[in-house]
Design brief:
Elements: H1 12-16, H2 34-41, H3 46-49, H4 56-84, H5 89-112, H6 122-148, H7 150-175, H8 198-233, H9 248-264, H10 266-312, H11 319-332, H12 334-360, H13 365-452
Helix pairs in contact: 2-4, 4-5, 4-6, 4-12, 6-12, 7-10, 7-11, 8-9, 8-10, 11-12
Length: about 450
């Protein structure tokens, strides 16, 4: 595409006051081509731009930036649909094309709606458009940055998923088979109960109590049995006779042992203790088997929970997981953080560039002419409105005047008829009065003539 600045044929004598008979300067005929299509994309009016051809290259490149932004937006949506969401090829193409058109229309509106904006309100008109461009730039840039950092992001997702699985196993391991000190087991529950050792603990408690009772008795029995052994064995002490054999002293000592065992129920208590020991041995064996089975079931369920957690991350990572992984990478590595910032910032600046340049620079000659054209059209429109209003109200005024004249004429005719009827009545009345007077006069004359005779 070649961009040629078209020169304007102007008669300088017109501007200097000379050549009054010459026609006004007219811009050359505009050329068509890709550059004009790019300018049309951002709403440039070629008939106005022909008067300021110096702005033509700037608007052509601005249109190219809008087109490139739309293409990058389409590429970004292609990455999201085809690479991240694994959509079908036709759906990915349709989605990317649609998104490119949407962003292109938005950017085109952002630029075209700012043409001709001059004066003090220019800043407040352009700032909201800059914010919209910033938002669009962020939406476009993030999928592209995720694709560029894809290998590192995927590895980070794998590491995070493995850590999540290990945390599940560790959490259940701290609570089963036996909870460790300080472990929070509210979120780690298995559908299995530990073997019930209540009965075994009760028997052990009873055995302990019985052993505590037998301990002093056995100690006393040991002393008595020791005395029997000394007496019957012929050992000479201060308390024995020193005569070996079953003498009466030996028999007495044995009787003391029997009496003590009988009085304190030692045999019965020993029988109870033996019975408790048998029960405890049986329950301990049974509980040991149940505990082994319980531990095996705990291990199986923990492995099932870990497998369930692992299956949650078995599918293709979604876009949110990729964002989290990239954020995790950036938080641990300044290099990744800066690379992400610079790359995303570059794409954002590209989208914001047209509006940003308008905000930072003074209104161009094209903007001033568009503003003047808008003002001129507003004045023409106002004049046209006033003219149409006057034409319509003028016709109404004429009809109103005609109607008022007709009403006045009708009222005058009515007044004339009323006066004529009144005058006729008055004339009739006068004629009647005159006739009566004349009749009275004749009658009077006749009476006088009669009286004279």
């Amino acid at each position: 595409m070649t961009e040629m600045t078209e020169s304007m044929v102007r008669d300088t004598s017109q501007h200097d006051g000379g050549g009054q008979g010459e026609p006004p300067p007219v811009p050359l005929r505009r050329r068509s081509g890709p550059s004009r299509l790019l300018r049309a994309l951002i709403g440039v009016q070629e008939n106005v731009l022909d008067w300021v051809p110096e702005d033509r290259p700037k608007f052509t490149r601005t249109g190219a930036i809008v087109l490139c932004t739309a293409l990058i937006a389409g590429l970004s949506m292609w990455i999201v649909l085809h690479e991240f969401l694994r959509a079908s090829l036709p759906m990915s193409i349709a989605g990317a094309a649609f998104w490119a058109i949407v962003i292109g229309v938005f950017d085109s509106w952002l630029i075209s709606s700012s043409h001709g904006v001059i004066g003090r309100g220019r800043f407040w008109v352009l700032v909201p458009r800059l914010l919209i461009s910033l938002l669009i730039g962020i939406l476009i840039s993030e999928p592209v940055t995720l694709k560029i950092f894809e290998s590192a992001v995927v590895e980070q997702i794998k590491a995070d998923n493995q850590a999540a699985v290990e945390n599940v196993g560790k959490g259940y391991g701290n609570c089963y088979p036996k909870p460790t000190a300080g472990a929070d087991c509210a979120a780690y529950k298995l559908s299995i109960s530990a073997p019930d050792s209540t009965e075994l603990d009760r028997y052990k408690g009873q055995r302990t109590q019985l052993q505590d009772v037998l301990k002093p008795l056995n100690k006393k029995l040991d002393k008595l049995n020791a005395a029997v052994a000394e007496e019957c064995g012929g050992f000479k002490t201060a308390h024995t006779s020193g005569l070996a054999g079953p003498g009466w002293r030996c028999a007495m000592r044995k009787e003391q042992v029997k009496t003590f065992r009988s009085d304190h129920g030692v045999a019965e208590k020993e029988g109870q203790l033996n019975d408790l020991n048998r029960k405890i041995t049986t329950l301990t064996t049974s509980l040991g088997v149940s505990t082994v089975n319980y531990e095996r079931e705990v291990t199986r369920q923990i492995e099932a929970k870990m497998a369930e957690e692992r299956d949650k991350h078995a599918a293709t990572p979604g876009i949110l997981e990729r964002f989290e992984a990239l954020s995790s990478l950036a938080s641990r590595s300044w290099a990744v953080w800066w690379a992400h910032l610079l790359l995303a910032g570059l794409l954002i600046v590209i989208d914001c560039y047209p509006v940003l340049t308008k905000l930072m620079s003074a209104p161009s000659a094209y903007d001033r002419r568009i503003a003047a054209q808008l003002e001129s059209k507003e004045r023409l429109h106002d004049n046209d409105l006033r003219l149409n209003e006057r034409l319509r109200t003028g016709d109404g005024d004429v009809r109103l005047h005609q109607e008022e004249a007709r009403i006045r004429h009708a009222m005058e005719e009515s007044d004339f008829d009323t006066r004529l009827r009144t005058a006729r009545r008055e004339a009739d009345l006068r004629e009647r009065i005159d006739a009566l007077i004349e009749q009275a006069k004749r009658a009077r004359s006749a009476r006088q003539s009669t009286f004279a005779e």
